[in-house]
Amino acid sequence: HADDEDSDYHQEPYKESYKDRRRRAHTQAEQKRRDAIKKGYDDLQAIVPTCEQQDFSIGSQKLSKAIVLQKTIDYIQFLHKEKKKQEEEVSTLRKDVMALKIMKVNYEQIVKAHQDNPNEGKDQVSDEVKFNVFQGIMDSLFQSFNASISVTSFQELSACVFSWIEEHCKPQTLRDIVIGVLHQLKSQLY
């Protein structure tokens, strides 16, 4: 019987110390978790520009976690919009580069053709006459363009431009305009 009491006496402190150890381990784990969360919020506050305090008169006031999260979400959304905008700009620049490359090839072909036949075109009309032909074509096109286009909004402008192209820029219409301008200039020149 004395052995039983003895064994009880030795087991009790062991049970308590085991509980204490578990409690202490749990407390430490909880503290570690809280510290990690606090560090996360501190890091967000340091990284996100809109979380920086501007009012120095109140000192370095701590923002609430809800505000830090909201400002972080807003900042990420802003970055996504900026990224999309930059991607659109890159796409536009790529198209510009492609157009310039095509123009370069065309100009190189024109220069090569001129170098191969340097005497060709000595009897060509003057630049002034060429410009008058171009101006006559453009003036004629602008009259119909101006009458057809509405500029109340960009959407309406876009719709009108396509409608004008379909109606007034058909090959036959353009051909008739060019022939009319050339006849008019011919009668002026001769």
UniProtKB/TrEMBL annotation:
Compartments where found: Cytoplasm; Nucleus
InterPro entries xref list: bHLH_dom, HLH_DNA-bd_sf, Max-like/E-box_TFs
Cross-referenced Pfam families: HLH
One function term, GO molecular function aspect: RNA polymerase II cis-regulatory region sequence-specific DNA binding
GO-annotated cellular components: cytoplasm; nucleoplasm
Record bears the keyword Nucleus: yes
SMART domains assigned: HLH
Listed Basic and acidic residues bias regions: 8-19, 27-36
Chain segments carrying region Disordered: 1-36
Domain BHLH: 21-79
Alphabetical UniProt keywords: Activator, Coiled coil, Cytoplasm, DNA-binding, Nucleus, Phosphoprotein, Repressor, Transcription, Transcription regulation
Coiled coil: 76-103
Function according to Swiss-Prot or TrEMBL: Transcription regulator. Forms a sequence-specific DNA-binding protein complex with MAD1, MAD4, MNT, WBSCR14 and MLXIP which recognizes the core sequence 5'-CACGTG-3'. The TCFL4-MAD1, TCFL4-MAD4, TCFL4-WBSCR14 complexes are transcriptional repressors. Plays a role in transcriptional activation of glycolytic target genes. Involved in glucose-responsive gene regulation.
Protein name as it appears in the record: Max-like protein X
Organism name: Chionis minor (Black-faced sheathbill)
Gene designation: Mlx
